Amino acid sequence: MRSQFLKFAVAGAIGFIVDAGVLYVALAIGLGPYFGRVVSFLCAAFATWQINRRLTFVVERAESLWTEWLRYLSAMSVGGACNYGTYVVALVFLPKMTVAPLIGLGAGSIIGMFVNFAFAKWWVFRAQN
Question: pTM surpassing 0.90?
Answer without folding.
Answer: no
